[in-house]
Amino acid sequence: MFGLGEECILDIPDRYFTLENYEGGVARWCPACGDHAVLAAVQRICRDEQLPPEKVMAVSGIGCSSRFPHYMHAYGFHGLHGRALPVACGIKARRPDLHMWVATGDGDCCSIGAGHWIHAVRYNMDMTLMVFDNAVYGLTKKQTSPTSPRGMATNTHPRGAWLPPLDMIQATLGFTNASFVARTVDWNPLHLYQTLEAAYHHKGLSFVQILQRCPTYTADVFLEAQQHPDRVLLMKHENGVKVDDAVGRIYKNQIEHDPANLHEGRELAEQRERIAIGLFYRNPDAPRYEDYTAQGMEMDTAAKLQALEHEMDRFAI
Amino acid sequence: MQTMTSKTPWTGPEAGPLPVLAPAPAASGDQETLKTLRRFHLAGPLPEPEEAWLDMDILPALLHPYRDAAAVRSDYPLALLPETAEPAPGEDTAGFCLSLPDFLQSMAARAESPRVLAENLPRLERQVREGTEGTADARTRLAEAGTALRKTLALAPASDGELGEALDRLAAAVPEGTVLLPLTERTPLELFHHAARRHLRAAQEVFRRDLRGIAEKGRSLLDADDLKRPESRNPARVQGSVGSVGSRFLDSSAMAGMMGKGQGSGPLAAELRARLEQAVRELEDETPTSGSRLFTLIHDGSVQAGALSGLSGWQITEDEDPCAAAARRFDETAAALADTLRARRLARLIYDGNYDPDRHDVWLSRLDWRSFTREELQLIQPIVVLISADHAARRGLLSLSRLVLSGRPVQVILFEQPARNPGAEAGSDALTGFRFEPAYLGVSHREAWVQQTTVARPGHLLRGYLAALAGARTALHVVAHGFEPRGGRPRLGSWLYAGAAVESRAHPCFHYDPEAGNSWARRLDFSENPSPEADWPVYPLAVKDGGAERALSLPFTFADFALLDPGYARHFRLVPPGIPDAELVPLDRYLDLPEETAVQKVPVVWGVDGRGTLCRMALTRQMARAAADRLGYWRTLQELAGLRNEYVTEAAARAKTEAEAAAAARIEELEAAHRGQLERTERRATEDAVNRLTAALMEVDVAALAEPVSGFETLAGRSVDDVAAMLLRAVQESTLTEEPGGPTGERIDQAAEKLLELIDPDRLEENAS
C-alpha cells in the first residue's frame, strides 16, 4: 500500500451481526443433548467471521442432528435420509460463494449416505461436514447405527450390537482426495469451537466427527471419556487445531502430530488405547470440484450464447 | 458483499478491483505517436489540458486505492484533551492530543468496553468523522455518533441495549473539556493555541508561585525592619506583641524603655525601604497573567477572513507588514513584563542582602527582553505571525529576515502550497525557475528554530510547536495545510494531499533546533520522512496484467504529486498503449540519465483512470525539471542530515582501501614467515632423519646378518661423514617423490632403499661422486 499505511483505508461493511442474527427457532433437542453445543459453536463462528446470514447455508439429512437448519437463521435445506451431501454438493457447484454447513449423523452419513460420503470427500468441495456421532439412531428411538459399540443393547439388537463399530475417521482417511479429517467432542466447548473454526477456514471439505452425547438413548457411551480425560489423546500442532491452554490443562495426554503426515494420522486413528481428538490430516492443496463446476459463472447471457454458437458452428454443415 | 472478520485488521478492499494494465494493440510501435510525445515533452505544456484526459479522472497510480475518500481513515478529527496540572514543555504529545482512532481506543480501554462496542469502534469512528465539521465538544459528539450508530446497525434488542450502555460508559470516560478538532484551514492555529496554552499555563504557574514567595519574603523583611524602628518601641506596641496574657506578667512600659539599648542591625535606609515597599507592592499586585489572556495573531490577509473568524483565544489583527508589527507588539509586551521582573529582581537582591545601588540600579533600569531568562521569556503571551509563502517570498522577505535575526521569541507560521513556487513571478508558470524554500531560508539564518511540517503529520507539527515554545528565539513554522489558496479543497481531500506532498519530496519534514548542539547531526531531525535514505519512496502496487496478478514497484515522485493539482494538467499527456518502453523512461530513472541520453527519451509516470485502467503519462520538460529541482533540494537536506554525505562516503572508501592494503600486507608478511618456517622445519627434519639413519646403520653388525645385504661390505672403511653424505643424498632424493611433511619413518625407509641403490657395487664410484 501507499506509505500512508494499510490502516489508512477503512472499508467497513455497513452491517454488523450479533449472535441473535443467526438464531432461528428454539432448539427442541433434549436437555443436555450435545447438539446444542454444536449449534452454539457454529453460531459463534458465523458471528466471529461476520458472515451475512443470507450467505450461510445449512444442509441436513434426517435425524436429530438434521434439525440443525431449523435452528439457524440462515438458508437451509432439510433433505432426505442420507442425502445431505449430494444436496450440499449441488448447491456448492453453482453457488461457491455460500458458506456451507452440513449437519448429518452417524446413520445418515455412514449408513444410508455412505455412497455419497465417499464421493463428497473426493469432490472436496468447500464445506464443513459435521457428523453428529451419538452411536445410535436417536430420532427413531434407539436403533443400532454403524458406530454403535459392540454389545450395546438397542431396539434392533436387544442382546447387544453384534458387529464392531465403523471407524469413520479411519474410513475417511482412506478416501481419495480427503483434505481435512478431524475429531472433537461436544462436552469440551472450547475444543469443539476451535475444531469447527479450523474446519471453516479450511478450503475444501472439512470432515469433522463430533462425539456427541445423547442423554436419552446413549448416555453411557462416552461417559468414561467425559469423566476420565486421560482416556483422551489430544493431538496438537501449529498446523492443526489450535489448543487453548484451558484445553491443554484438561487433556494431559498430548501428542505432537503434523496433520500433513497421513501415515501418522492413520496410525493415530487406528490405535484404540485412547480416543484421539484434533486434526488427523490436512491437505490444503487438494483439488476442489467447484473450481471446475463454477467455470463460466462470470459470463453473462450474451457471452454464453456466443460460446454456445461457437461450439455449434463446429457441427455446421 | 464483502465480509469482515473480527480477527483481521481493518484493511483495504480485498474484493475491490485492482488496476488493470491495458493490453497493447496488435500493431504497436507507432512512430508518429512517439514523435508527438517527444514534441510535447520538449515544446512545453499544452495551451489547455486534453479534454479526454480530464474526463478520465486520472490519479497517481499509488493513490488509486484512496479514490473513495469516504473510506480514507485520517488522524482527524484530533482529540485535544484539556490542560493538565503539570504539563512539561517539549513532552511527547501523547496524552493531550490524540488521533481519532487512538482516542477511541484509549477511551474504550478506560471504559472496559464489551465486544459489541470493541468490534464497532471503526464504525463509530466513521460516524464521528463524518459528522464533525467544526470544533466540537467530544462528549457531545460521541453521544450523537453513538445514537447514529445504533440506528444504523439496528441490532436485536439485547445487543442494542448492551451497545447503548457501552456507549454511555465510553462518553463518560472522556475527560471533561475534551474537544474534537477537524482538519480545516485554521487547524495549525488551533493546534498551536492548544499547545501554547498548556505550555504557558505551566510556566505561569511556576512563576506565580515564585512571585508570591518573593513577595512574602519581602513583606517579612519589611515587617522585621518595622520592629527595628524607634516607633515600634512604645508601650502600646510592646503590649500588643506580648498580648493580654503576657501583660499580666510583664511591665510593657519598662520593657519599652529597655528595648533598643543593645540592638544588633539597624533599620533599612529610608530610600531602600521605599524601594523595597514599592517592589513588594508591585509583586503583590502584578501577575503575569493579569493582562490579556489572549494570544496575538497578526496576519497578512492571505488567509480567508472566514477561516479565522470564530477562532477563540486570539486577538487578531491584519497588517501589511505583520513581521514588523509583531516585533513592535513583542517589545511592548516585554516592556510591561519587565516592570514586574525588575521588581522581582530588586526584592530578591534586597532580601539576599546583595543589593548595591551603584551596581544594580543601572542594570535594573536597562532591563529588557534581552536580559530575560528563558523562563521569563516564556511568560510572554505568544505572538504569532501568520503569513503565506508568497508574502515571505516577495514583499515580506526583508521583514521576515529582520524578525528572525532579531531573536525575539515570536512564532512565525507560514502556510505553504507545496505544489506551487512562491518565488515565481506573477503570471508565470509555477514550474519555471527554481523553487523558493522558506524553511531553507529560515535555516540559513542559523539561529532560528525552524520546522517544515504538515497537517498530515499532526504529531510532528505539535512536537515542533512545543519545542519552539520551550526555546528562547524566533521560530519559523512552514506548514503545508493541504488547502488551495482561498480555501479550496484539493482532490482526494486535504489530509491525503498534504501527505502526498511529504511522500513526493515536495514538502519534506524536518526540525532544525539551533540549541540542540553545534553540529548538523544534532540540530537537524529528518526522521519523519518516508525512506529518508532514498531519492523517492517506492511502494508496491498490485495490478492485473492479462488476467494474472502481479506487483509493480513504483516511486512516488513530484510529478505524481503534481497530478493532483488541476493547474498542472497541461503538463501531462496520455501515452497510448503499445509505445515501446525503450523510448519512455520512468521519471525516477530519467532524472539519473546523463544529459546526452536524456534528451532522446520521454519521461513518464503511471496513473490510473476512473475505470481502473493503468496508463502512462508523458511529462513536459518543465515538469521533469521541477521534479529534478525537488530532488536536488531533497538531496541537499539528506546531506545536511548526514544521510548522503559525499565527504563521509569518500572517507569511508579511503578507510576501506587503507584497511584492505594493510590487511594484504600483513597477509603477505605472514605467508613469507610461514614459508620460511616451513623450509627450516623441512631441513631440520631431513637432517634429523639422516642422522638417525646413520646412527642406526653404524650399529648394524654386518657379520651377524643372516644374509648379508649386498653392498654393506662396501661401506667398510668409509668414514661416517661419507656415509652421512650418502644418506643425506638418499633422503633428499627420496623426498623429491614424496609429499612434504610425510612420515619420517617412511622417509627413512625410502632413504635406506635409496642408499642401497647408491652403494650398489656397480654404481658405487659413480654415486659417491
Description:
The complex is a heterodimer of chains A (317) and B (769). Chain A has 317 residues and is α/β, with parallel strands linked by helices. Chain A contains 12 helices and 9 strands. Chain A has a 9-stranded mixed β-sheet, sandwiched between helices. In chain A, strand 1 (56-60), helix 2 (68-71) and strand 2 (75-78) form a beta-alpha-beta unit. In chain A, helix 1 crosses helix 7. Chain A is globular. Chain B is of the alpha/beta class. Chain B has 29 helices and 20 strands. In chain B, strand 11 (449-454), helix 19 (458-470) and strand 12 (475-480) form a beta-alpha-beta unit. In chain B, helix 6 (138-153) packs antiparallel against helix 7. The longest helix of chain B is centred in the C-terminal third of the chain and has 54 residues, at 646-699. Chain B is extended. Residues 1-15 and 85-93 of chain B have low confidence and may be disordered.
Layout of SSEs?
The complex is a heterodimer of chains A (317) and B (769).
Chain A: H1 35-48, E1 56-60, H2 68-71, E2 75-78, H3 84-94, E3 99-105, H4 106-110, H5 114-123, E4 127-133, H6 168-173, E5 180-185, H7 189-201, E6 205-211, H8 223-227, E7 232-236, H9 245-250, E8 254-256, H10 262-270, E9 275-282, H11 290-293, H12 301-313
Chain B: E1 20-21, H1 31-43, H2 51-55, E2 59-60, E3 78-80, E4 97-98, H3 100-110, H4 115-118, H5 121-131, E5 136-137, H6 138-153, H7 157-173, E6 179-181, H8 187-227, H9 235-247, H10 252-258, H11 270-285, E7 295-299, H12 305-308, E8 314-318, H13 322-352, H14 357-365, H15 374-377, E9 383-388, H16 389-393, H17 397-406, E10 411-416, H18 438-444, E11 449-454, H19 458-470, E12 475-480, H20 493-503, E13 510-512, H21 520-523, E14 524-525, E15 538-545, E16 548-555, H22 558-562, E17 572-575, E18 584-586, H23 587-590, H24 595-598, E19 602-608, E20 613-619, H25 621-640, H26 646-699, H27 720-736, H28 744-758, H29 764-768
Parallel strand pairs in B: 1-20, 7-8, 7-9, 9-10, 10-12, 11-12, 18-19
Antiparallel strand pairs in B: 2-19, 3-4, 3-6, 5-6, 11-13, 13-14, 15-16, 17-20, 19-20
